[in-house]
Structure to design on (289 residues):
């Protein structure tokens, strides 16, 4: 399977024309590797970054003058971004399928959580189901888009990966607990333990530029969850949605939410593996640039 779309292949070729002339060793070589890592991360965040940008812009420049509610504008903008990314070959159709799946899974959870009072959307909109504007599903889709894109952009491979069946069962249990803990005992600590046991030996191997690196997969989950928590703080600061206690004046999202995002990362990752099946590390002599 090709790692890049045709547009990405041209970008990669042009980038190598510049980067190949830069230092390959020592501190300078490490800085080049770090630069490429940041650029690839930014590219993987293309959809999520665009959504976050639109949320911030509509805080300061509400589209009311155009005769459209803010949430409806965000929903239509998200659809337009998706169509443009496909039309200009900035993402693969399989990634669009992941985004659709995440939108459905996320919207279902949003409907339940808002009805339970976990958070609210304070503004009116036309495109909504109950108290949930449809743009909200794209916030979950942003996570799915990132996970799918980063998997191929960094050519991620895995050693010590657990059986797929076990990961699917764990993801299903986590998703059910997001609903069930409102009625029965919250099983999140047991799920944290199950996640640690299942993925303890799993290592992700990824190529940045010249070198392959590796990281414990559990650490990768935590780092991504941390950045989602940062993004959620931006979302609530812009009043796109609000937690209890934020209606009168904004306060940072509780750090306890990091645990919820960590578990959601497991669900997100497993859903992506249904499209991009985890592959073992390639033999050293088969590595390609």
């Amino acid at each position: 399977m090709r790692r890049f779309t045709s547009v990405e292949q041209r970008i990669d070729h042009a980038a190598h024309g510049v980067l190949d002339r830069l230092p390959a060793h020592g501190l300078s070589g490490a800085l080049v590797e770090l630069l490429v890592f940041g650029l690839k991360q930014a590219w993987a965040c293309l959809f999520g970054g665009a959504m976050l940008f639109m949320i911030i812009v509509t805080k300061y420049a509400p589209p009311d003058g155009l005769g459209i509610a803010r949430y409806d504008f965000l929903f239509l903008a998200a659809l337009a971004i998706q169509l443009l990314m496909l039309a200009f070959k900035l993402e693969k159709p399989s990634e669009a399928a992941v985004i659709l799946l995440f939108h459905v899974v996320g919207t279902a959870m949003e409907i339940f959580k808002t009805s339970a009072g976990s958070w609210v959307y304070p503004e009116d909109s036309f495109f909504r189901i109950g108290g949930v504007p449809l743009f909200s599903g794209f916030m979950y889709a942003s996570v799915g888009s990132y996970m799918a894109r980063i998997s191929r952009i960094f050519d991620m491979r895995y050693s010590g990966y657990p059986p797929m069946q076990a990961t699917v069962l764990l993801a299903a249990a986590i998703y059910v607990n997001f609903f069930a803990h409102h009625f029965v005992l919250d099983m999140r600590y047991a799920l944290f333990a199950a996640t640690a046991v299942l993925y303890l030996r799993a290592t992700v191997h990824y190529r940045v530029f010249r070198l392959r690196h590796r990281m414990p997969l559990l650490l990768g989950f935590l780092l991504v969850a941390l950045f989602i928590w940062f993004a959620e703080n931006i979302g609530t600061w812009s009043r796109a949605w609000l937690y209890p206690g934020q209606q009168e004046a904004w306060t940072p999202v509780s750090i306890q939410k990091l645990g919820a995002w960590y578990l959601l990362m497991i669900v997100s990752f497993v859903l992506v593996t249904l499209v991009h099946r985890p592959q073992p590390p390639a033999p050293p002599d088969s590595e390609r640039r």
About this structure: Residues 44-286 form one domain. The first strand starts at residue 128 and ends at 129.
